[in-house]
Amino acid sequence: QVQLVESGGGLVQAGGSLRLSCAASGRTFSSYAMGWFRQAPGKEREFVAAISWSGEETTYADSVKGRFTISRDNAKNTVYLQMNSLKPEDTAVYYCASPGQRFLFMRPTQYVYWGQGTQVTVSS
């Protein structure tokens, strides 16, 4: 069982930066891949980024590639999402999630553990 708690969301102007953190409980964190998703009002939850259990592999949605960076610190049971050059269209609730296994996935239905989400609002 893994419990996930996100933090670091807030209000930022377009072009600014935020770093989201996701603290995980449970000894199995370092064995699992992790991902970030987001959901804007009236839209479906969409994939943002994922990282393998070791941190050696990452993948990103085209919309955030080159602006966002996912990383993890297994010693701290924490995964991060560094978001730079933010745009108003990045406004959403951001969720941390885990598929409960080592491999990277991009569909929300492939993830079994979810945090409660943190709001990110980018003003123009």
Task: Provide the fold topology.
Layout lengths: L2 E5 L2 E4 L4 E8 L8 E6 L6 E6 L6 E3 L7 E6 L4 E6 L8 E7 L14 E2 L3 E6 L1
Parallel strand pairs: 2-11
Antiparallel strand pairs: 1-3, 3-8, 4-5, 4-9, 5-6, 7-8, 9-10, 9-11
How would you characterize the overall build of this protein?
- With 124 residues, this protein is an all-beta fold.
- The protein has strands at 3-7, 10-13, 18-25, 34-39, 46-51, 58-60, 68-73, 78-83, 92-98, 113-114, 118-123.
- Strand 7 (68-73) and strand 8 (78-83) form a beta hairpin.
- Helix content is 0%, strand content 48%.
- The mean pLDDT is 96.
- The chain is built from no helices and 11 strands.
Quick summary of this structure?
The chain is mainly beta and 124 residues long. It is built from no helices and 11 strands.
Mean pLDDT equals: 96
Structural class designation? mainly beta
Strand content: over 45%
- The rounded Rg comes to 13 Å
Element string (H = helix, E = strand): EEEEEEEEEEE
Poorly predicted ranges: none
Terminal residue distance: 40 Å
Q: What gross morphology would you assign?
A: globular
Count the DSSP helices: 0
Give a short account of the largest sheet: 7 strands, mixed
